[in-house]
Amino acid sequence: MQRAVVLLSGGLDSATCLAVARAEGFECHAMSFDYGQRHRRELEAAQVVARALGAVDHWTVAFDLCRIGGSALTRGFEVPKPASVEDIGREIPVTYVPGRNTIFLSFALSWAEVLGARDIVLGVNALDYSGYPDCRPEYLEAFEQVANLGTKAGVEGDRFRIRAPLLRLTKAEIIRKGVALGVDYRLTHSCYDPDPAGRACGACDSCLLRRKGFAEAGVPDPTTYVRGREG
User: Fold this and answer.
1) CA 101, CA 159: separation in Å to the nearest integer?
2) CB distance 3 to 27 below 8 Å
3) How far is CA 130 from the centre of its chain?
4) What pLDDT is recorded for position 82?
5) 3-state SS string over 90-153?
6) Span 164-199, pLDDT tens digits
7) What is the pLDDT of residues 13-55, one digit of tens each?
8) What separation in angstroms does the CA of 192 have from each of 29, 43, 73, 165, 204?
9) I need a surface site. Which of 18, 26, 115, 125 has the fewest CB within 10 A?
10) Helical ranges in the chain per DSSP H
11) How far is CA 169 from CA 32, 78, 83, 117, 164, in A?
């Protein structure tokens, strides 16, 4: 069985990626990151999702991006709460974390080389709005080149693949795929700004896109929002 390192945030997309990799026959090693984000709710979700979807192991890497700042997700700014999905801006949002995916992929690459895994799987998406420069196809292609130029395995011809199976799917398509693969989305957490009880705010960019995705997929939204349970 081939091995894969799967980046697991605890959110809807990364949970679906883990299910996809399992369905494709990979032995999955899940990796999450405690990087100083605003809350720990997503890390709690990642632990539960990793167990539920059969990850062989799950490693949470800790480091601190708060000292660098520059993002609403590291408490540098307030998390924006647009009135609707249509009001989400098209510029790079303040929830962008400088260098985050490059750091995540670097850790994953290191672990993959030691494990003998040659596939690194992550849940980035370029079709539904994100605005993040490190979610673009050309970024992933460039990092794959770096992986194969800068590792012993790559230089010796045992090449790495950076895989983003959800890259060109809408949120609704992602949800339908996950439901077909048995993902329990009640276990996932997508909100940027949950309340102290861990309930999703229902109003940040991520919550709006999640709610829209469930509505368009025709699947009841199991998320508990601050303004009441919907779905």
Assistant:
1) 20
2) yes
3) 12
4) 84
5) CCCCCCCCCCHHHHHHHHHHHHHHHHCCCEEECCCCCCCCCCCHHHCHHHHHHHHHHHHHCCHH
6) 999 999 999 999 999 999 999 999 999 999 999 999
7) 999 999 999 999 999 999 999 999 999 999 999 999 999 999 9
8) 25, 12, 7, 23, 7
9) 115
10) 12-23, 41-52, 100-115, 137-149, 152-155, 171-180, 205-217
11) 23, 29, 24, 25, 10
pLDDT tens digit string along 70-129? 999 998 789 989 877 877 777 888 899 999 999 999 999 999 999 999 999 999 988 765
Looking at residue 53, the DSSP 8-state letter turns out to be T
Q: How far apart are CA 216 and CA 108, in angstroms?
A: 33
Do the bridges between strand 228-229 and strand 224-225 make them parallel or antiparallel, or are there none, so unpaired?
A: antiparallel
Give the burial class of 16: count Cβ atoms within 10 A of its Cβ; 0-12 exposed, 13-18 middle, 19 or more buried: buried
Give residue 84's pLDDT: 79
C-alpha distances in Å from residue 197, one per residue of 37, 194, 215, 222:
16, 8, 25, 16
- CATH architecture label of 3-184: 3-Layer(aba) Sandwich (3.40)
Name residue, tokens 């299910």: 19
Query: What are 22's two structure tokens?
Result: 């399992």
Q: Is 164 helix (H, G, I), strand (E, B) or coil?
A: coil
